[in-house]
Design brief:
By secondary structure, the chain is an alpha/beta fold. It has 8 helices and 8 strands, in the order H-H-H-E-E-E-E-H-E-H-E-H-E-H-H-E. 36% of the residues lie in helices and 26% in strands. It is elongated and about 65 Å long.
């Protein structure tokens, strides 16, 4: 990988042997391996048996989870907040495991829509809840640094599964509880206008 990075620096018109770039191939390789470490993660090991039988049937929310990922189209970062909710059936998951799941899937080459779905689908598969909801809001550097160069825009995606998809009241309760930052003129954050991905 370091050889390829050196060649890339040359193709960009740089001298990989100058002082400031001499260790750049090593640093870039370390950074890329960390930023894509989600490929090596085993979900069952991440959860580490943190599933517990609890008599609780109300909504569980973990909100404002910071995440950082790489856009698979340009290898530029996108980052923001992830909000996760589920309604237990017979089991709950350790609260710290939800941010770890977000990290596993965000540390891959991604698109935001698939990332949102993967988090929701994994919780549905491992916890078997009555419903799962995931909302992600992110700034994409491929939009703000290049292309349309819109620095203040961000994308919102959601996955609503089970009761969150079939029950509008449950969905709206979740959206009210996370209170999306999207108080931007012209951006409608009602359940009907969120970009829903996934299905029951």
């Amino acid at each position: 990988m370091q050889d390829h990075i050196r060649k890339l620096l040359v193709e960009l018109g740089e001298d990989p042997d100058r002082e400031g770039l001499r260790r750049t191939p090593v640093r870039v390789e370390k950074a890329l391996r960390f930023l894509t470490s989600g490929y090596d993660a085993n979900i069952d090991e991440v959860l580490n048996d943190a599933l517990f039988s609890v008599d609780y049937s109300e909504m569980v929310i973990v909100k404002d989870i910071d995440f950082y990922s790489l856009c698979e189209h340009h290898l530029l970062p996108f980052f923001g907040k992830c909000h996760v909710a589920y309604i237990p059936s017979t089991r709950v998951i350790g609260l710290s495991k939800i941010p770890r799941l977000v990290d596993v899937f965000s540390r891959r080459l991604q698109v935001q829509e698939r990332l949102t779905n993967q988090i929701a689908d994994t919780i549905r598969e491992k916890v078997a809840p009555v419903g799962v909801a995931v909302v992600m809001e992110a700034t994409h550097l491929c939009m703000s640094m290049r292309g349309v160069e819109k620095q203040n825009s961000f994308a919102v995606t959601s996955a609503m599964l089970g009761a969150f998809r079939s029950n509008a009241r449950t969905r709206m309760e979740f959206l009210e509880l996370i209170k999306l930052r999207s108080a931007v003129p012209g951006v409608d954050t009602s359940a009907a206008n969120l970009a829903c991905v996934g299905d029951d």
